[in-house]
Amino acid sequence: MRRRIFLTLLVLLAVGSAFAQAKYPTKQINIVVGASAGGTSDTVTRFLAKDIEAQLGVPVVVTDKPGGSCSVAFEYMAAQKPDGYHLMYMPVESAMVKAMGFTQLEPKSVRYFAHAMFLPATVTVNSKSPWKTFNDLIAYAKANPGKVTVGNSGTGSIWHFAAVGIEQVCGVTFNHVPFDGGAAAATAVMGGHVDVATVAPGEVLAGVKGGYLRVLAIVDTKRSALYPDVPCFKELGYDVKILAWGAFAAPAGTPDSVISVLEAAFSKAIQSQGFQDLCVKYGFTPGYMDAKDAQAFAESQARWYQEEVPKLKLK
Predict the structure, then answer these.
(1) Rounded CA separation 191/200 (Å)
(2) For 81-110, b where at least 16 C-beta lie within 10 A, e where not — what string?
(3) H or E, element range at 288
(4) Which of 146, 183, 229, 301 stands the most exposed, by the fewest C-beta atoms within 10 Å?
(5) Res. 307: pLDDT tops 70
(6) What is the CA radius of gyration of the chain?
(7) Which helix (H) or strand (E) holds 296?
(8) pLDDT tens by residue, 179-214
């Protein structure tokens, strides 16, 4: 009789455990963003969070933790319990920060479950700037080494990487100024605090529409749909293509059953018409990848930046 009761209890525990897993999520999901409010990372995450909240029926709260080119948020997320309730928007910097020496974390330290989009850098100046074209800017920078101040989204960030890449191919020297996100750098250009911002198309859009900013070039092999009259680097004769990207991940050890729920929900949200419209609005290129492909892509990017970062001396 005791053996039968014991076996019955084991069966009930197993069923209860399976039911608990099937019930995920049952409470608030938190997504951390490693940049300041108003930038690309924050905009994308908050948009998708609303969709995920509607799908899963629980609150999805977004918190910005800027600093260290996303390493502050990365360290925070990776240390959380792997239960699916603490997630992170993973920008391209998540594949760069180990190479930069900001953290020992890298893509293989966590579990990616979805990739969302890609986006290029712009070269943007104040609308009152004397530089009407990209060539005007480069001519001035060559004649005045180190005088042009260029704002980026943080030391070691992809937009810092973009500015350094421009220096190398154009043979100029900039004075790099880091900010906690691309939106902050764009605001600094509007305020006349720095001369140039190498940030995302969407991060300067409001300033361009308001007549405060002017985009001189798109650091890509093609033009941006947001700025169809602005030349891309390929047209200007420079072989440079520096793309940022955005994905989502959970702490290492998060169960497959939880990852499957998140993968399905984010797949639907990222491939929705609403998100496609957001991409058009802010100059993103949609690029959904599932958990397996997102993980593989992020890890391959980390290997590439491990080789490239030392060459550009970003530190």
Answers:
(1) 18
(2) ebebbbbbbbbbbbbbbbbbebbebbbebb
(3) strand 285-289
(4) 229
(5) yes
(6) 22
(7) helix 291-312
(8) 988 889 999 999 999 999 999 999 999 999 999 999
